[in-house]
Amino acid sequence: MRPKDTSNLLSDVAYKRILEALMDRSVPLGAMMTQAELTKVTALPVGPVRDALKTLENDGIVVVHPRSGIEVVRRSTDLIRSTYQFRLLIEREATRAFALQAPQAEVRRLIDLHRTTDADYAAADPNTGVADQMAVIEDAFHSVIVAGLGNQMIDLSYRRLSLLSRIIKLNDHVLPGVARTSVAEHLAVLEAVLARQPDAAEAAMRDHLTRAMTRNLGLS
User: Fold this and answer.
1) Domain boundaries, given as residue ranges, for the chain
2) Which DSSP string corresponds to the chain?
3) How far apart are CA 101 and CA 124, in angstroms?
4) Rounded to whole angstroms, how far apart are CA atoms 9 and 13?
5) d(Cα 185, Cα 203) in Å, to the nearest integer?
6) pLDDT at site 173
7) Which of these, 105, 127, 108, lies nearest to 179 by C-alpha position?
8) Is residue 1's pLDDT more than 70?
9) Which of 5, 11, 45, 175 is close enough to 51 for a disulfide, judged by CB 3.0 to 4.6 Å?
10) Do the domains 6-72 and 77-216 sit in the same CATH topology, yes or no?
11) CB 49 within 8 A of CB 14
């Protein structure tokens, strides 16, 4: 039996630990780090950390400056616009396909999930942060629709976009009222999908992502 490549396994662990540190704010957005500092963050040797940085740079999460350090991505107007513009290109087509071929039972499950979530938010303290719960709903909605295309190249691109979307929202304090707006936009897409209306579903997705971009830019 061929032995496992432990260097690859350790680089995967380093990648996950750096992302986790970013998401829990141990590594702040926009920070300049050294490889030595990241070995402390990950508790791993420099080799796996160096390999993980190559993947993170490909994902757009860091920029490696030779002899200067590792620059962590920061939330910016350009990042928000480019991320949502790319998502629009993928998700409009994915939504059309989903409307034509998604199993009705799956669509109804998503609708029920959103209606239950909306009821929970309606009953919640209006000043309670619900960012973590909303992230779960966002993933359950968007990822399922994109996965329906069955296109591995798109899946890889969308994984990167999902990471960048999480970073864009990292410091957001999402209140139930704002979350209910997003849930309602999701439901507009899902109801059109359930009715097998691809034009209406695509238009609703375009509206949702455009509004989400506007919200993240602080324009609404």
Assistant:
1) 6-72, 77-216
2) -PPP-HHHHHHHHHHHHHHHHHHTTSS-TT-EE-HHHHHHHHTS-HHHHHHHHHHHHHTTSEEEETTTEEEEP---HHHHHHHHHHHHHHHHHHHHHHHHHS-HHHHHHHHHHHHHHHHHHHHS-TTS--HHHHHHHHHHHHHHHHHTT--HHHHHHHHHHHHHHHHHTTT----HHHHHHHHHHHHHHHHHHHTT-HHHHHHHHHHHHHHHHHHHTT--
3) 35
4) 6
5) 11
6) 86
7) 127
8) no
9) 11
10) no
11) yes
Topology of domain 6-72, CATH: Arc Repressor Mutant, subunit A (1.10.10)
Could you tell me the two tokens for 110? 């998503």
Q: What is the CA radius of gyration of the chain?
A: 19
| CATH number attached to the domain at 77-216 | 1.20.120.530
Whether the per-residue pLDDT at 3 is higher than 50: the answer is no
CA–CA distance, 174 with 153 (Å, rounded to integer): 32
* CA–CA distance, 19 with 74 (Å, rounded to integer): 14
Residues near 185 by beta carbon (within 8 Å), at least 6 away in sequence: 204, 207, 208, 211, 212
Q: Are strands 32-33 and 62-65 parallel, antiparallel or unpaired?
A: unpaired
